[in-house]
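Journal club side-thread
Mid-discussion, someone asked how the predicted structure for our own chain would compare to the paper's figures. Pasting it here so we can look after the session.
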Amino acid sequence: MAIVNRTPDSFFDRGATFATGKAYDAIAQAVADGADLVDIGGVKAGYGEPVSEAEELRRTVDFVAGIRARHPDLVISVDTYRSGVARRVGEAGADLINDTWAGADPEMAAAAAETGAGLVCSHVGGLTPRTDPHRMAYDDVVADVIRTTTALAGKAVAAGVRRDAIVIDPTHDFGKNTLQSLELTRRLDELVATGWPVLVAVSNKDFIGETLDLPPGRRGSGTLAALSVSAWLGARVFRVHDVPAARQALDLIAVLRGAKQPAGTRRSLA
């Protein structure tokens, strides 16, 4: 899942794909590099300038329609916590609503169901959108994540979202400190065991930066390590900034797990 942000203040790219033309170019490049999905965001996840729903719609709806026209078979996801936006992007052609704020808008599941879109069910420990965690405490963070995400998934099915279009996301760093995000990563197989497909969004996250004492622009190797562990433990969707590097790492993990064959096996056999 390639990340293409339609925001001027993204923590990672600092607005590199805010302009429409550059955003379309980024989509085309992501597809060429091996992305299966693209995730479009119109609002920065963390602190920043307020973004009205009207402005979020301006940044996303026509762009989604344009992607659908250019790439008819591409799976399009939109990262939003507003049901009004979810409805409009679903009507414009989005296949998946990436609700990274865990149902803060109680109409989100209904909005996805109305347009036939899938839904990402997340965990943020009760935080409101665009706020950062502070002294978050859990008796068992993994158990809390499982309880929350599976409950949201069940509610989504009850609201009419197709069961096979629901993904759960432990949502690293959202409502969690670094130690909690690390714990989630090493125990990701427990989320996989729920039977719901698991999405991981670890790319360049702060828990990697704090662990390795590195700024966002230098977290690539740490990201690949976290992605590889997540893939080995059974995650199914990987939200990333660097598509070519992630594609190579994930393809190798798939071969090591026996899920696919190597591209070639000529060495010592010819």
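Post-session note: The chain has a mean pLDDT of 95.
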